[in-house]
Amino acid sequence: QVQLVESGGGLVQAGGSLRLSCATSGRTFTTYTVGWFRQAPGKEREFVAGIRWSDGTTYYANSVKGRFTISRDNAKNTVYLQMNSLKPEDTAVYYCAASDTIVVFTTPHGYGYWGQGTQVTVSS
C-alpha cells in the first residue's frame, strides 16, 4: 500500500513563497513518477508539475513555469514543490500523486495514488 502525505500549505500574500512536501511510504519510487495537481473551488483538478523519479526529469504547466520548482530527495522519499511569486489565482487545494509508470502524465487519470491535499491560499 502506498501512502502520500502532503504538508506545507497555508496562507501567504501575493508575491510570497511556500514549499510543499509530499512524503511517500509503502514503496520506493525508483521507477515511478510523482506529480502535483491543484483544484480550486468549482474547477477541475489540473496538473501543476511532475517529476520522473529515476532521472529527475521535470515537467511544468505553463501557468507555473519559471515560478514553481519540483524536486525530490531520494533518501527521504519526499517530493517538494517550491512555489515562488505566488498569485491569487494559485489558490487551491494542492494534491500529490504517484503513478506506476515512467511517463509523466499531465492528467489525473494517469495516477493511481493520491494524498489528502493541502490548502494554499494567496491573498491579494
Features:
globular, mainly beta, seven-stranded mixed beta sheet, four-stranded antiparallel beta sheet, 124 residues
How would you describe this structure to a colleague?
By secondary structure, the chain is mainly beta. Helix content is 0%, strand content 50%. It has no helices and 11 strands. It has strands spanning 3-7, 10-13, 18-25, 33-39, 46-52, 58-60, 68-73, 78-83, 92-99, 113-114, 118-123. Strands 2, 4, 5, 6, 9, 10 and 11 form a 7-stranded mixed sheet that branches. The chain has a 4-stranded antiparallel sheet with strand order 1-3-8-7, with no helix packed on it. A hairpin with a 5-residue loop joins strand 5 (46-52) and strand 6 (58-60). The termini are far apart. The model has no long low-confidence stretch (mean pLDDT 93).
SSE blueprint:
Blueprint: E1 3-7, E2 10-13, E3 18-25, E4 33-39, E5 46-52, E6 58-60, E7 68-73, E8 78-83, E9 92-99, E10 113-114, E11 118-123
Parallel strand pairs: 2-11
Antiparallel strand pairs: 1-3, 3-8, 4-5, 4-9, 5-6, 7-8, 9-10, 9-11
Alpha-beta content class: mainly beta
**Unreliable spans:** none
What's the helical proportion of residues?
Answer: under 10%
Termini Cα gap = 40 Å
> Which percent band covers the strand fraction?
over 45%
Short characterization:
By secondary structure, the protein is mainly beta. The protein contains no helices and 11 strands.
